[in-house]
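Example record for the data management plan.
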Amino acid sequence: MLAEICNLGTFKSGFVIRNVHRTSFMGFQKFKDLFEISTLSDLNSMGINNKINQGYLYFLTLTVIDWVDVFTRPVYKHIIVDALKHCQQIKGLEIYAWCLMSNHLHFIAGVKEDNEFTLSDILRDFKKITNKKIIEKINTETESRKKWMLNQFEFAGRYNPKIKDYKFWQDGNEAKEIHTPEFCSKRSTISI
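Corresponding structural encoding:
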């Protein structure tokens, strides 16, 4: 019921995909505000990162470099959906709600405590594979903004020794641990 109000695709064992428009973000914000959310941040040598603890659910935001509107074209949206499916099926990612906007992705996710992959590992791999596949699609598809987008992504990764060619995602994931009595007792289940 809450998912219908918020117009979100929710899934645990499979995908239910709904069209999400910019106006739907208000619904997602209401969903987000139903929970007490706190940011766990610490400083390390790479900059400011949000710490992710095993066994909790997180409200996550992944943002494209320079807020470039990449996900206005279906071909790029499908890459994200396929990567999320892969992370669910192979890596044990549990997604409870999600919203793909034109230049960022919001989702509520976690992993089982006995999972061999941590949420941090899954997010790292998700960003790495989607970075590669989206850049490949930009290069092979008819894309009017191709030169401009590749320039933005190349410039973002130019001075980072870890980046070979292009950097698609901003650093971090804005992980906000979700705290409520229901989440503390169940941790990996949400009643919708």
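Summary line stored alongside the record: The chain has a mean pLDDT of 75.
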